[in-house]
Records
---
Amino acid sequence: MTDFDPGPPPAAVLDVRLDDAQVDAFRRNGFTSIERITTDEELEWLAPIYDFLFDDKRGTWKGSYFDLARPYDADGDDFVPQVLTPEMRFPQLLETNVSRNARAISSQLLDLPAAELKQWGHMILKPPRVGGELPWHQDEAYWEEHLAYRAVGCWMPLDPATAESGCMTFLPGSHTGEVRVHRHIGDDPTVHGLVTDDVDGSAEVAVPIAPGGATFHHCRTLHRTPPNTSGRVRRAWANEFQVTPVPVPEGDIPDRPWLRAGREAWDDRSVYRS
Ligand code: NI
């Protein structure tokens, strides 16, 4: 593997926690945001790591890089490329202000001890002008139907996240419902991204934030990001925090046909055959 050693993150520590009003707002709305989760210094350290993982569609492990909005084996430029578990290639990502603050805040939001939370990350990039939308979905719709989750996602942009570049957009209160019926974008299970139809988005809230700010959302909160119509890249690093999910009782396991179709397509990717 290509050699690149960014070393440890900068030493400067920033501690951020939510106040009670922010936690209450999260419980009501299913999302919240903060202006800063890290330092400028750490953002500068992070950018070359981020770019390294996306350059040459490198990713972390075989198959960890793919376009969320196009078939797995599509050629050419990607619309919404994603890299899974960057911390597997760069474990020092777990030592950052971002990780530490996101864990502490997720612990506040879930009302669970920080040490009990498992963390995994993913990075999503929207290229200038061609960066595609990610339509309405719930993150839990991507996960195992036979497990019950308690989870929060933290999303931090490295570039200005605006309505033009693809900022997070949430539907307040949607986290209290069930996981809705989803389907793969374009009804094509070889496209990883999911969408749920018939969402009344009239009450949606767009959350523009500066680099180094962060949003937090519940795993059932309906959210979307618009396309990147701006002239600059929109890079974001997301981290999920969850307790070990527990098995759903046999008779209560929901039917999620999109997961069955998606698993087959995932296992059939050419990256595994080459
Ligand atoms: Ni999502």
---
Amino acid sequence: MRKIIFASTNENKFKEILLHLRNFDLEIEFLRFKTNEIQSENLEDIALEKSKVAFERIGQPLIVEDTGLFIDSLNGFPGPYSSYVLQTIGNKGLLDLLSNKSNRLACFRSVIAYNDGKNNLTFSGEARGNISDHISEVGWGYDPIFIPEGSSITYGQQGITNKISKSHRTHALNHFAEWCCRYYSK
Ligand code: IMP
């Protein structure tokens, strides 16, 4: 079974990735890795650069992942600045920004960058939904305010199994895992 490192500081992401990749012939291992992200409007560029720095340090086949929450009525904000916005104004601040907006549509985007020293590729996935009008008590990151399409409850309320049945990260992981299994079976 092919072993891939997930280089990140986010154990919540790892739990989701581990659970989903059980469906594929891949072994995933968590390696705590922190680096300063480059400033870019483009999640692909951020993930690719992070994967290069991670590979230079770790020297084993690895993935990194970058997510952004893009809110339609805020012209895509916070997008690539999602981490900074959560740390500063938080979910409450975002709900305040949306208080007079009837359009609550939003989209989570996940970009996975794979690097094995030879291949450096990205795989992306999206999940559309709505921003709720209050913060649910469960869930990490933006999960307490994001209601995926086709649901009436937030990702946080759904719990990990339901969330990953069709999350942004799951779609990106499917693309990555399909490519990876094909590539290593050659
Ligand atoms: P990152 O830069 O990929 O770590 O993510 C940007 C911000 O989005 C961070 O504050 C994360 O906590 C948050 N985030 C990333 N993925 C998710 C998710 O699946 N659900 C909710 N929040 C997330």
---
Amino acid sequence: MRILMVCLGNICRSPLAEGMLRHKIVERGLPWEVDSAGTAKDHAGSPPDSRMIQTARKAGIDLTSLRARQFTSADFQRFDRIYVMDHRNRDNVLSLAKQDSDRHKVALLLNHLNPNESAEVPDPYYGNTEDFQQVLALVDAATEALINDLSHEH
Ligand code: 4NP
């Protein structure tokens, strides 16, 4: 299983989702591959936002080695599942899809937690510490549900 987490900047939500899922799959011994990307290129090459690094660190997750990159259409070949954090990221990713098999790989991360609700992981960039903590709680619960769902599938 090759999983890509996608947000807008690849400096807040998707690096956390990558780090958290990687942490969980190592704990469980699952041979999955995890990466993340942003649909915007503004932050390419940058480490995660320092507020996200701090929030993750409190949960025992180290994001310091991650560097942002932009999502490209080649990612449809490289990954089996592409999880987007919000509707805007989904629109951006789907605009690069060439075929139905690409589109079928794309889903909202929170659909694992709340199926059919179309819920979003809110963008914390202009928010406060509590907003970052809320992102962590959502991503923690959703990655737990994702592992349960996908490990029963395969
Ligand atoms: P992310 O958060 O998409 O979770 O990485 C953002 C980071 C940067 C910006 C917006 C959202 N920005 O507008 O620069």
---
Amino acid sequence: MESADPGSVRRVLLVGFMGSGKTSVGRRLARLLGWAFHDFDARVESVAGGSVSEIFRRHGEARFRELEAEVGRRLLTAERAVLASGGGWPAREGRMESLPEGTLSVWLWVSPEEAVRRARAEGATRPLLASEDAVERARKLLEERLPHYRKASLVLDSESAPPEGLARTIHESMSVGTARHEILPS
Ligand code: S3P
């Protein structure tokens, strides 16, 4: 895992699988820091003029990934901002390795079972999990993405605390200067 100097953090990037709470934790962390919050998926939806599911359905995943890449490039220049990426954004060679200076990356861990439970509770918003064998699909996707998520500077178990608690932990780790640690299930 790479380390980051929290004193020089100018943006926080939350990564992790679908349902790991990037958006809810990100909003709360932004509030604690008094920073802006930007969500990759929400930005893609406003650029495309439709929901993520509609983009997948009408234009295919490849088009979604192009839009996501473009949005990611732009949002990663934001200063004093908390960013929530989509679950698939880090899973491209080189992305986690070439984050701009001043970016603290945080991986929110979630189990495949809990990811699917949360995704279902939110309705049909995740096209990649819209199948009967969603847990199996989630397990496979998560496994493929682990090498990328693992490159984050800080890792938190999203099932260990509610979003407010996770946001506080990140905030505290920034202020006490321990921007490199792991809190994962034992
Ligand atoms: C995806 C995750 C989704 C969204 C799209 C694809 C993925 O974002 O970008 O459905 O590939 O994991 P969330 O992680 O915010 O659910």
